[in-house]
Specification:
By secondary structure, the protein is mainly alpha-helical. It has a domain of about 60 residues: 434 Repressor (Amino-terminal Domain). About 40% of the residues lie in helices and about 5% in strands. It has four helices and two strands; from the N terminus they run βααααβ. Strands 1-2 form a two-stranded parallel sheet. α2 packs across α3. The longest helix is centred in the middle third of the chain and has 11 residues.
Length: about 90
């Protein structure tokens, strides 16, 4: 599997150029490459067509990226004494 970043760099395209070619905002490409977001199925199909690969062959996460990921909707721990739901009214 090859990452989106590696495929883009092999062709010497900027993130902006790739974004224009598949019809997304350049920030989307940045977020995909940093592992903060995943492309939607239609964008994966466009990426596959553009790079001549099956979308299954495109690695969505760069194993060398060191981005901290949290579960969607996860909240940082809070002091229970400050949580209004636990206080009596």
């Amino acid at each position: 599997m090859t990452t989106i970043r590696a495929l883009r760099q092999e062709r010497e395209w900027s993130q902006f150029e790739l974004a224009v070619r598949i019809g997304v905002h350049p920030q989307a490409v940045y977020l995909w490459e940093s592992g903060r977001r995943m492309p939607q199925v239609p964008q994966l199909r466009k990426l596959g067509q553009l790079f001549g690969l099956c979308s299954d062959e495109i690695a969505l996460i760069d194993p060398s990226a060191s981005v901290k990921r949290t579960a969607r909707g996860a909240r940082p721990e809070t002091d229970p004494s400050r949580d209004r739901r636990t206080q009596e009214t």
